[in-house]
Structure formats: C-alpha cells, structure tokens
Automatic annotation (TrEMBL):
One of the Pfam families matching this protein, by short name: PK_Tyr_Ser-Thr
Topology versus the membrane: Single-pass type I membrane protein
Protein name: Protein kinase domain-containing protein
A GO cellular component entry from the record: endomembrane system
Transmembrane segments: 290-314
Sequence ranges assigned to domain Protein kinase in this UniProt record: 362-637
GO biological process, one term: defense response to fungus
Length: 659
C-alpha cells in the first residue's frame, strides 16, 4: 500500500515538473506581439526579451505565477515606450495586472482587453490613447482598479462599467470624454452616509458600484447633473467639466459649447410646459391653409439645407487624412484600427497618386534596381523632372499600424534633407487599393558609383573625377552629421548609396532605410557595421549605423574608390584587411591604386590614405569627425580645371611613351 502511495506522489511531482516545462505558447506569442507593436524603446526595456526563449518569466517587466506556468502581471511603467497596444494580450488569460503607466501608447484601447477575466488592475494612465472606452471593459468581472487618466479618450462613458461589482478605484480624469455620467439610483432615494441605498427601482450605471471608494471624472466634458449616488466623492472629482454644479469649478460656456442642460424641472414647470403645448396645438388647429403651406415649404427648404450640410460633413470626414490599418487580415471592419496621419509631420512632402507614378514609370516596367525589400523604377513626371520611385515590397496583411507610423517618420526624416550632394525627396505615394507605399526621389542619370567602379568602364572615372566624388561625398556627410539637427546617418553607406549626376557629382541616397521599417535582415555584400567589421549577408549588425559607423564606412568607401575593389568578396576577403599592409608604408602606396587608372597624383593618394587611417581607427571614440576630414580633403586636394588639364596632359604623355 505504501509503495502505491509513494508511486502516486512521484507521478504527481513529475506531472508538475512537466507542466512547468511547458509554458503556454499562446502567452509567449501574446508578449511577442506586444513587443512588435512598440516601435520606439529608448530605455532598452526589451533588450533582454529573447524572442527564441519559450519561458518569459525572466524578461524585464514580466511576472509569473508561483508555479512559473502563467504570466500574471505586466508592469512596464515610465519607460517612454512608443507604439500601439496589441489586441493579442487577451491570450494571457491568467493576467491579473496590466500596468503600462507613463508611456507613449498612441492607439485605441483594444476591445479584446475585456476578455481578461482574471484582470484586477488595469493602469494605462499618462499615455496618448485615443478613441472611446470599449464597452467590453464591462466584462472585467474581477477588476478592482481602472486608471485611464491623462490620455485623449473620447466618446461617452459606457454604462457597462456599472457591472464591475468589485471595482474600488476608477480614474478617468484629464481626457476628452463627454455626455452625462451614466448613473441612476432609482426613484425613491433613502438618505445614507454614501447615498447608495435605494428603495423601489434598482440603481443603474455607476450607482451599482457598491465597492467604489475612489473615482475621478475631472477635466473632461461631462454635462448634466452630478448623480446623487456619487455625492460622497470629493467635489474636485467633478471639476473642469460642464456639469450643473455650483460648488465645483466647471469649464466656461465657450469651452463647453452647446451642451444640453440638466433635466431638473419641477412639477410646476412640467405643468406649465403641458399647458403651453396644449395652447400650441389649439393654435395650430386654427391656422389658415396658406400659412400651413408656407410652413411646409419652409420646412422642406430647411431640411434640404440640413441634408446638404450633413453630406458635406461626411465628405470631409472621408477626405480626412486617415488610414485603416489591420492588425490581422479580417473581413470585419471592427478588427481594424484607425491611425490618423500626422499632417503636420508631412506638410512639406508632396503626395503623388499611384496612377500618376504609373504613367511616369511606363506602367512600372522601367525597373532600374531591386532588392528583397523594394523595387526602384525610373520615370519622368509630365512637365517635370526625371524621378526614381522606390516601392516597398510588402503585403497588406503584413503592414501594421506601427509600421505605418515608421513610414511617416521616415518620410519626415528624408524630407528635411536638402543639399547639393544628397538626393532630394520629392514626395510619396500611399494608397490602400491596391496597397501602395512609395517614395519619390530626384533621379541621378549616371547610375550608382558601384556600377561605374565594378561593372562599367573604369576609364570614365579619372583620378580627378574620383577626387571630386570623394570631396562631394565628404560634403554630403558633413551636412548630414553636423548641419542637420538632429543629425542624419546613412543606413548603409557604400558605393550603392552614392548616385552620380550627368556631370558625375555624387548624391547620397538612403534607400536601405526600408530595411529598418520592415525588419528584414538581408544585406548586400558591401555592408559595414558601426564597429568597423565587414558584415556578411543576413547579418543584423549594420541596420542602424551611428555617426561613427558612417565615418568608418566612409573610410572603406574611399578605399573602394581608389582601388576599384569591392569592400568584401569571397575570394579576397575584406578590403580593409588587404589594404592595411600598404597604408602605412609610403613606398608601396601606389600598389593600392586601381590598375584601370593610367595616372594618379601621389600627393592626393597620401591625403586619401591618411584620411582612411583616421576613419578606420579601431577605437570608435578616436575617429575624426567628418567636419575635420572634409576640411583635410578640401584643403589638400586640388580638383580645379587647371589640375584636371594638367592630369590630362600627363595622361597623354604616358600614352605617347607607351606607344
């Protein structure tokens, strides 16, 4: 018998351990969805959230049950997280506390939050949430505390909140809520300390919250009278509204607008009202026919004007800069989220329609570049300039609300760039049918520097022309790093990000910024990380290059220009590793020069190699600023017409001797 008991205990313990090892996958999925909906994490809260870890109990801000088998609390407050509140949080069925106070959440409150039956604390205060309070919050049967203060919530207060029988604290202050406070304590109120006891009719709305101890409705746009069942609350809980209350500070009439007055008529006034109505009916019965006809015509005209006004308002709403972004593909409009485009952010950016760009780019057949993330078309705007159109390759069902905000931010960043050695953003295209996200740049007719160095005729890039390109790139980077506030860095600075105009002037272009938007990891073979390491394809290290990373990449680009070699190739390895043995030995410097060149200036070569050494210094903090590097290049390299003619005569002399 004892053996069987011992066996049973062992089996039970084993089952417990097995259960602990198998953490619910849907809860991990919900947390990852929450993480993906946040697009700015300045305090690196998510840096230790390992996407490959199936047990999130050690992740910062996540608290699990004693058995480590469920997430019961999420507390990430004051972290300045910017993004959206994922509706997939409802998969964490055992969640008891959701505390995200003091962040920058900018979405609506997902109605799926109402599915969290175990939730006791919901604190989303001090964010930038918009839209109405979901009716589904009335399904939070275990909730004790709700804090939605200091947001931008609109609409009426749901009467369903009266179903929360355990609710003790309700903070809704400093929003844009309107309407009456939904509370009625029945017809025959009996006096009590809290005014919560009624006889006869049952209380409704907020009057049903028998456990409510603390509530704050201040600084909204509520109108009407303060329910008697809430008299026990502090008067400051109702200030800053449009309520009919003499003893608490309310908004001015100008701020409140046309809010309906409180229904507080006495029996005498009701009788007078009925008497007036009776007289009006008697008078209308004795009106002549022509007067009735006139009233009918006037009513029809007034109705027509009202209809026109309504239709105009609807049309304006349709034209409002807003887009519907699906969290997931669904045929129901309720499963979508509205994200309002920041018109102030994009006020200086021209918006093109897809049809216009389709005509300009010959039905999108003129493809001049491609990557797994985007296609680049060449086109000509009718009566306008030649353009390069970058089209994002992504399906609509993969496009989320926070990606849309990233897209807007990217456009705003690119729009502020205006320099002779940087490509100018002319506009963008954003349409929903068919799904389209495009950026429109001015076109540089001579293609990329990479094409000329590695696939074209090298003789087209003489030494003097290469020096002009070097100085032009330096000027462009100097503008981006030191003249823009905040500074701007090129995501992947290499010969593919330098376009050449008809006279071979360089234009820096940040086409690779798409990769930071859609979070892909494919990289071309010329990527350089901020640590100065050659990055192989599929590496994530070079996604976001800082200024020092751009400096290093500039040094590698200089080597690529003077040697004609790519930054990395499988046979010869990294260009930097190959060049290091030559850079510090003046006698062998000429060996690094592109054999395609018939001549070069040794003085220029020494300056270039000195700048390269400063750029690729192993200590990031010791790298010279682009401002100083640009000054070195401009003061020591002569790219004038005289220098070009002199170089040209030397070339002819060399050619004559060789023949």
């Amino acid at each position: 018998m004892r053996t069987w008991v011992l066996f049973g205990v062992l089996v039970t313990v084993g089952l417990i351990f097995l259960t602990c090892d198998a953490f619910p996958s849907n809860e991990v999925y919900a947390l990852k969805s929450f993480r993906e909906a946040i697009y700015e994490d300045p305090r690196m809260v998510f840096s230790n959230w390992n996407a490959l870890d199936s047990d999130p109990c050690d992740w910062p801000g996540i608290f699990c049950s004693m058995a480590l088998d469920h997430v019961i609390k999420i507390n990430i407050s004051g972290a300045s997280l910017k993004g959206f509140l994922s509706p997939n949080l409802h998969f964490i069925s055992s969640l008891q506390e959701l505390i995200l106070h003091g962040n920058v959440l900018i979405s609506t409150i997902p109605r799926e939050i109402g599915l969290l039956k175990s939730l006791k604390v919901l604190d989303l205060g001090s964010n930038q949430l918009i839209g109405p309070i979901p009716l589904e919050l009335g399904n939070l049967t275990s909730i004790i505390k709700i804090n939605l203060q200091s947001n931008g919530l609109t609409g009426k207060l749901p009467t369903e909140l009266g179903d929360l029988k355990y609710l003790q604290e309700l903070r809704l202050d400093r929003n844009k809520l309107k309407g009456t406070l939904p509370a009625s304590n029945g017809s025959n109120l009996t006096s009590s300390a809290r005014g919560m006891y009624v006889s006869g009719a049952k209380p409704t709305g907020l009057c049903r919250l028998s456990q409510l101890r603390v509530a704050d409705f201040s600084f909204n746009f509520f109108f009407g009278s303060i329910p008697k069942c809430l008299d026990y609350l502090s008067k400051s809980s109702f200030q800053g509204n449009c309520l009919q209350a003499e003893d608490s500070r309310q908004r001015s009439t100008a701020l409140c607008g046309d809010t309906p007055p409180a229904k507080n008529h006495s029996t005498q006034s009701n009788n007078k009202h009925r008497l007036v109505e009776g007289r009006a009916k008697n008078q209308s019965a004795s009106k002549p026919t022509w007067l009735l006809a006139l009233e009918v015509v006037t009513g029809v005209i007034a109705g027509s004007l009202l209809l026109v006004a309504i239709l105009t308002a609807i049309q304006k709403c349709k034209n409002k800069s807003s887009i519907i972004i699906p969290w997931k593909k669904s045929s129901s409009e309720k499963d979508h989220m509205t994200v309002y485009v920041d018109t102030e952010m994009l006020k200086d950016v021209l918006r093109y329609n897809r049809q216009e760009l389709e005509v300009a780019c010959e039905d999108f057949s003129n493809i001049i570049g491609s990557s797994p993330d985007s296609l680049i078309y060449k086109g000509t705007i009718k009566g306008g300039p030649e353009i390069a159109v970058i089209s994002l390759c992504i399906k609509e069902e993969q496009w989320t609300a926070y990606l849309e905000l990233c897209f807007q931010k990217e456009m705003a960043e690119l729009a502020r760039i205006n320099h002779e050695n940087t490509a100018k953003l002319l506009g963008y295209c954003r349409e929903s049918s068919p799904f389209t996200r495009m950026l429109v740049f001015e076109y540089a007719s001579n293609g990329t520097l990479n094409e000329h160095l590695h696939y074209g005729e090298g003789c087209q890039l003489s030494w003097t022309r290469r020096m002009k390109i070097v100085i032009g790139i330096a000027k462009g980077l100097k503008y981006l790093h030191s003249e823009l506030d905040p500074p701007f860095t090129i995501s992947e600075l290499n010969s593919n990000s330098v376009y050449l105009t008809e006279d071979f002037s360089p234009k820096l272009v940040d086409f690779e910024s798409w990769k930071s938007i859609i979070a892909r990891s494919e990289k071309n073979s010329g990527a350089i990380s901020s640590e100065g390491v050659c990055v192989l394809p599929n590496s994530l290290e070079s996604r976001h290059l800082d200024i020092r990373g751009n400096i290093y990449a500039f040094g590698v680009l200089l080597l690529e220009i003077i040697t004609g070699r790519p930054p990395y190739c499988k046979d010869k390895g990294c260009l930097v590793d190959w060049a290091k043995e030559f850079l510090d030995v003046p006698e062998v410097l000429p060996y690094v020069v592109d054999p395609e060149l018939k001549h070069f200036k040794y003085e220029d070569l020494k300056v270039i190699c000195e700048v390269v050494n400063l750029c690729i210094h192993p200590n990031c903090s010791s790298r010279t600023s682009i401002k100083d590097l640009c000054a070195m290049l401009e003061s020591n390299i002569d790219t004038s017409i005289t220098a070009e003619l002199k170089a040209s005569s030397l070339a002819w002399a060399e050619l004559a001797l060789s023949s």
